[in-house]
Prior knowledge:
Blueprint: H1 10-17, E1 22-25, E2 29-33, E3 43-47, H2 59-80, E4 84-88, E5 98-104, H3 127-140
Antiparallel strand pairs: 1-2, 2-3, 3-5, 4-5
Amino acid sequence: MDLKFDSNCLFCNLLLEGFPLKVADLDVSIVCLHVDQYFYGRCLVILKWHEVELYNLTRDDRIRFFEDMIRVANALNVALNPDKINYAVLGNVVPHLHWHVIPRYKSDSLWGKPIWAERHEERRLSQLEYEQLINLIRKYI
């Protein structure tokens, strides 16, 4: 397979340099924590090569990408016991295929709304807290 790379793409460059909050290397994707943990456990599942649209992937790669995302969702469910998991694939800000996999809790201030419905203060964790969360999720992937 001839993997595409775009030197102007943030995710392509991070694929080369390494993601600082990487959880795991999966079949066709990398999973990492989102730096903003306002929604505790929020992860990104990022395709290992540059592609912008799902329809440009082969059927096999679409299935493998979807299965990677499901694997992460299942791990988040077991590790964190959320009330619901939200899934989003947008690409407006970073045009490189990636899933947002977001545990949701009825106690969160935006329950019943998309996470982008209202501005919220970013929640950063300490390095130790990020490491503990990464290890917890990794345990179930």
